[in-house]
Amino acid sequence: MKAVIINEFGSSNVLKYVECPKPIISAGEVLIRTTYTSVNFADIKNRTGSKAKANFPMILGLDVAGVVEEVFDENSPFKAGDVVIAFPKNGAYAEYVVAKEQLIFKVPEGVPLEKAAAVPTVLFLSYLLTHQIAPIRTNDSVLIHAASGGVGTMLIQMAKKLGAKNIIGTVSDMKKATIAYGLGAHHVLTYDDFSAQVNEYTDGQGVNIIFDSIAGNITEESFHCLAPYGTLVQFGNSGGKAGTIKTSDLHNSCRNVKGFSLGTTRTSKPEMLQQVAQEMFALLKEESFQVPIAKVFKLEDMQKAHDLMESRQHQGKILIKI
Fold it and tell me: Alpha helices, DSSP H only, in 162-240?
């Protein structure tokens, strides 16, 4: 089979389109013929070695959409021909992948495969963030950092559906504001002195919930516009630097901070994903629920896909069609 591998950490030119052995399944696993995979920011982190372990050759990628090719035994809940999305165990940039049964989800009729392919990571993440980690209530004010990206575009729509009265998004460039406004954001601003503007938009009250995937000084400044009893959810580190949280920012104001990782959850509590899968697919059936796709690349053009992701000039998801 064809796959994209890396044999060392580095820039996008370490991505190599090569022939690899077709994977073999074991008990509790399923072989999937990949139709689509996607590029997530975690792939960039893993390619550069920021978080990945050196086990070369390595196939990157978090999620796939495709068709079941083979099951291990007849007791499997899946069968050959099932259309599924999945989180593979050894990377996704390949024509065939292996996934554990508890991390595979059948795509219902009525859900376009390209739409489903764009969301395994971003929609599971945003659904869990807004419904379980920091549930959004009617009339909440919400701040969403990186609002034009894959997760950000999902979070805006979740906040709108849940009745948030004030949805504020941040972007790196106001050229990206259009997509955020189109999905339901009430205000969009850049990161320059964003806390002052957020306080202005909320009449000095601050926001009830902040979704932060950037970390560093963005996390630190976020506390200047987080309301008393508010919640900041830290679920990523795309900025590459850790932020400092002071205990004095918490107890006097009754504010709290939560951390969340979809990767940890896939490994430690996959049942959380199974519990919300049907609600997620129900959203995808709605024509009004948009899944913005920035661009679709071929597998052999993975380097170009990574370059676009790193440029931060895209809006929505980057898909790979195989």
Answer: 177-183, 194-201, 217-222
Predicted TM-score (pTM) above 0.90: yes
Place of tokens 């022939």: 19
pLDDT per residue as tens digits for the range 108-130: 999 999 999 999 999 999 999 99
Contact between residue 207 and residue 170 where contact means Cβ atoms under 8 Å apart: no
Residues 6 or more apart whose CB falls under 8 angstroms from that of 118 comprise: 36, 38, 150, 291, 293, 316, 317, 319
Nearest to 189 by CA among 221, 158, 215: 221
Nearest one of 122, 118, 176 to 313, comparing CA atoms: 176
Question: Can you tell me the distance from the alpha carbon of 198 to that of 177, in angstroms, rounded to the nearest whole number?
Answer: 15
Query: pLDDT digits over 175-217, tens only?
Result: 999 999 999 999 999 999 999 999 999 999 999 999 999 999 9
Rounded Cα–Cα distance for residues 43 and 38 (Å): 10
Strands 141-144 vs 207-212: parallel, antiparallel or unpaired: parallel
Cis amide linkage into residue 57, ω under 30° from 0: yes
How many whole angstroms separate alpha carbon 58 and alpha carbon 47?
A: 9
Q: Where does residue 199 rank: exposed (0-12), middle (13-18), buried (19+ CB within 10 A)?
A: middle
Any bridge partners for residue 168, and if so which?
Answer: 143, 187
Nearest of 38, 45, 47 to residue 291 by alpha carbon: 38
Q: Which of 166, 110, 155 is nearest to 128 (CA)?
A: 155
| Token pair belonging to 96 | 């065939």
What is the torsion angle, in degrees rounded to the nearest 10, for the CA atoms of residue 232, residue 43, residue 292 and residue 287?
-80
